[in-house]
Each structure stands twice: as structure tokens, then as C-alpha cells.
Amino acid sequence: MTWLDRQSFLGAKSDERLDAATVGLVGLGGGNSHVAQQLAHLGIGGFVLLDDDIITLTNLNRLVGATLEDVKAGRPKVEIAARVIRAVNPTARIVMRRAKWQEVGDLLKGCDVIVGGLDHVGSKDELEAFCRRFMIPYIDMGMDVTPLPDSWESLVSGQVVLSTPGEPCLRCLQLVTEERLKAEAQRYGVAGSRPQVVWPNGVLASTAVGLVVQLITPWMRDPPRSAYFAYDANLGTVAPSDRLARRRGKMCPHYPAKTVGDPIFDVRRYIGRLDQPAPTRALAASSRVRAWIVVVLTCLRKLARRD
Length: 307
Prior knowledge:
The protein has ten helices and eight strands. By secondary structure, the protein is α/β, with parallel strands linked by helices. Helix 2 packs across helix 7.
């Protein structure tokens, strides 16, 4: 018996798929701290953890795994997430950087899935554009608290969106708009952190983890290529949004199909890596990228024989 026997319903060799997978977590605050913990329990083998921030006292109401001692030590959020993961799976392959993801984006290129836990609309837009270019499924989480007019109550709501090339993007779904980007730029340096608490973050994170599992394991015969789940904490509901339903069958005009791939990619760098053992090779590139490399190398060798 192993620690993953109870999830055999996920399909044949699902444990191997989960262990071979690498998931990028960008932003290790409230939502992604839940995601890191859950993915570790599921048996995900590889993680890329990126966040430039340290924990503060105001983070303790929502950051899973954090302690008051971490606050006193000014510990980076990526280190807390790594500690949570290793406490469950000591053999997990973890790459972490305390940096803005834009500064270390190359670390994300080998990920099988990327989950964004970013507050700012502009940052979401940039990360989705990165994922679209390198054909990596992107799962975005967002939450907000809005005071209701003439009431002491607040509306707590959020969403989880799966974005993949060819499917509706955050702009198609009106989650990223020029108006929101402009308003955010005008508030830059003035607005404080958006209000967040642990239980709504947990609901959104669990929904995101469910999408990760559907993408990686053979649990579902036809895994989703896109998804939009709207969360209403006041009603206690998570439901598919009609925004996505209205976009079904329509081409995404914001990311043309041709704008993919790395313009400075050099296949010669990867020739030696194809002969490495599987665990090392899994870190070097995702299965999707490796398959593409094999095709390119085969074509090059055929051309060389013709010459």
C-alpha cells in the first residue's frame, strides 16, 4: 500500500503522471498557498514557486502553513510553500525564486500547467500572454470583496478560469479590460491589498486543483480545454459562468494561433538532454516540449540523410 492508493480512481498510472508533472505557482499568497499544499498531497512531483514577497502579519489570516515565527523572521513566501510541500513529499522536485515572475520567466517554460495567484489585473494579463505563447494551460484565480451600498454587508466573490490556446482568454471573458487596466494604473502606489480571507481562497484553490487533476490524469475521458467557475461566498455557490457559454465556438481575437513558440529557441541545446534519465529530462522540459523536440530532430536527421 502507498500513500496514494485511495486515489486510484484517477486512472491507470495516474500516480506516475502526477509525479512526472511540473506545476508552476506564480504568487504564493492566499490562494496558491492552498494549491501548493493540495498538490503536494495529490503527489505532484515537480514545482516551480515564484513570488518576490515575504510574509507579514497581515498575511496570517490566509497563508496556509505560515506561522508567527515566519512573520518574525521575515521569511519569503516561496520558502514557506516549499516547506509545506516537503513536509508531505520530501522527494518533490522544487525550484523556487524570490523574484517577480517576469524576471525569471524561463523557469516556467517547462511547466505542464501554471496556476496564477496574482492580485493585479495587469499581472494576470502578462502571465496569460506568456502561457499562450508557450502553449501552457493557465489557471487563473481571483477574488474580491465589494461593500454593498447602504448596507453593512459585503459581497465576497471570485472566479477560477482555465485558459488554453485557441480558447477564450481573460480578455474574451471581460476579466481583463482596458478600463480595468487603466483604473489599476491610476491607483498604483495608493491602493492597499485587496481584502482576502482563508475560506474563500480555499474554495477557489480547490476548484483550481480539480482542473489541474483533470488536465494531468486520465480521470476524465475528455478533459476541459476551457473553464470559468464563478464563486459567490454569500450564497455559498460555485457554478459555471454564462460568460464562457456565450463565447463557445468563437475564435479568440487577442492571441492569434501563429504567435506561439520561443523566437530564440535553439533545438541544438536540447539534443544532449534527450539522452538523460527520465527524472532529469522531466525537469529539463515538459512532455509537450519533449515530443515537439523529437519531431524536429527526426525531420533534421531525415534532411541530413537526403543531403
